[in-house]
Amino acid sequence: SLPESVKCPDISNESVTGLRKLWQDPTIKAAANCGIEYGLNENAIQCLKFIDVLTHDDYRPTADDIIRCCAQTPGI
């Protein structure tokens, strides 16, 4: 996990609510399934999928989380 000295920016409740609603939209999920065709970043899709986990007060990133967020996605 990250050291205590590393601070992540806060995200507003309105933004979290908006992201949840966005991910519930079937059109967004369909677009995410065709992400490469639309040039969608895999990391952004992961954030939408796991928005509830990522925004929980007790969330601490795992080593896998850090690797995933730093991994470059192949370009088109």
UniProtKB/TrEMBL annotation:
UniProt cross-references to InterPro entries, sorted A to Z: GproteinA_insert (IPR011025)
GO biological process: signal transduction
Top-level taxon of the source organism: Eukaryota
Protein name: Uncharacterized protein
Organism: Collybia nuda
Organismal lineage: Eukaryota, Fungi, Dikarya, Basidiomycota, Agaricomycotina
